[in-house]
Amino acid sequence: MIEKVLIIEDEKPNADRLKRLIGNIRPKASVLAVLESITDSIKWFEENDAPDLVMMDVRLSDGLSFDIFDAVKINCAIIFTTAYDEYAVRAFKFDSVDYLLKPVEEEELEAAFSKLERYTQVDLNKSIAGIANFLRPKDYRSRFLLPYRDGYKTVLVEEVVYFYSALKITRARLKNGMEEILPQSMEELELQLDPKLFFRANRQFILHIDSIQHVHNYFHGKLKIMIKKHPDVEVIVSRDKAHLIKAWLDS
Predict the structure, then answer these.
(1) Which domain covers residue 23, as residue numbers?
(2) Per residue in 198-213, pLDDT tens?
(3) Are residues 14 and 119 in the same domain?
(4) 141 in Cβ contact with 157 (< 8 Å)
(5) For residue 72, how far is the Cα from the chain centroid?
(6) What residues does the HTH LytTR-type domain cover (predicted)?
(7) Is the pLDDT of residue 9 over 50?
(8) Which of 115, 135, 155 is the endpoint of a domain?
């Protein structure tokens, strides 16, 4: 029986909707907290007993929610919520950990609750590991095939200093000073790139570890990143994500 629920969601309308739906389908269940970031979630799990269920958005303000699993062990059922396409969702329907598209519908949530209440912790742990491996492939992107004149050309990932998004267009700034427009979104790149080499600093920038020249303290616990050979580029890292990028740089 699901009685204690934790919501990890950085968009208030979505969190409020989940709370309302949970109240409808499980009136006796209580929402213990609504957390908005990886940092807050790790702290919560370190200080509290595991709930019966976590409703977890895949993408949070300071990164992918799977970073939480790298820091703490979570022994409870999990329902992931996201705006991913239907194809990805179908792939997870065979697992005991469920995966729902936003906006979550009451009928779907009821079905997910009922399914999770039938599974054991062993089943849940296997499913969490499987989904994590799916979203974080072992073979990371090494090149891009891009249109060029009347054909195509190859751009190596190792030539990229940083990726950035402007006006909903993704661009790669290369070591030779050139830029290339990419068809991938920043979210897709975040999954495809080796996390040891690239870090999603904010919604606009993904940085190569060798591109960082200086890290400065900024206002209200934020950080300001200066890029080698690009003094006009300033990348601001939020307070919630500051400790993550420092740990990445120190790894």
Answers:
(1) 4-135
(2) 999 998 999 999 999 9
(3) yes
(4) yes
(5) 16
(6) 144-251
(7) yes
(8) 135
β-sheet bridge partners, residue 60:
63
Strand, coil or helix: 199: strand
Q: What six digits make up the tokens of 105?
A: 């519908």
Q: How far apart are CA 248 and CA 232, in angstroms?
A: 24
Tokens found for residue 7: 């919501």
**Co-location of 42 and 100 in the same domain:** yes
pLDDT number for residue 87: 44
198 and 176, same domain (yes or no) = yes
**How many whole angstroms separate alpha carbon 206 and alpha carbon 25?**
40
Q: Count structural domains, the chain.
A: 2
Co-location of 157 and 102 in the same domain: no
Distance between CA atoms of 6 and 52, rounded to whole angstroms? 8
Instruction: Identify the residue whose tokens are 């950080």.
Output: 223
Q: Name the burial class of residue 250, with classes exposed (0-12), middle (13-18) and buried (19+) by CB atoms within 10 angstroms of its CB.
A: exposed
Let me know how long the chain is.
Answer: 251
Q: What percent of the chain has pLDDT over 90?
A: 53
Structure confidence by residue, pLDDT tens digits, 45-55:
999 999 999 99
Same domain, 86 and 177: no
Q: What is the pLDDT of residues 168-185, one digit of tens each?
A: 899 999 999 999 999 999
Please compute the mean of the pLDDT values over residues 59-77 and round it to a whole number: 81
| Burial (CB count within 10 angstroms: exposed 0-12, middle 13-18, buried 19+), residue 91 | middle
- Looking at the fold, whether 59 and 116 belong to one and the same domain comes out as yes
